[in-house]
Write a structure and sequence with these properties.
two-stranded antiparallel sheet; two-stranded antiparallel ribbon; elongated; binds zinc ion
Length: 71
């Protein structure tokens, strides 16, 4: 539900609303790119919230809440 304003995006971390195809949140610097570690397929966070890579099926772990240092 809710309208999907084209280009409008709300940062999942700081809540700032941004417009345009930014690669990072201009407010908090959160990376808005999601990339598959296996095949390198990339997409933007707001375009899709994939749990698995649409290309190779690798599990994507990009929980924003776990924005900590990855081992
Ligand atoms: Zn932000
Ligand atoms: Zn992949």
């Amino acid at each position: 539900m809710g309208n999907q304003a084209t280009g409008a995006f709300k940062c999942p971390r700081c809540g700032a609303t941004t417009i345009g195809n930014f690669d990072n949140c201009p407010e908090c610097g959160l990376s808005l790119h999601v990339g598959c570690p296996e095949c390198g397929q990339e997409w933007r966070y707001w375009e899709a919230d994939y749990a698995f890579c649409p290309k190779c099926g690798t599990r994507i772990e990009t929980r924003i809440e776990q924005e900590q240092t990855v081992r």
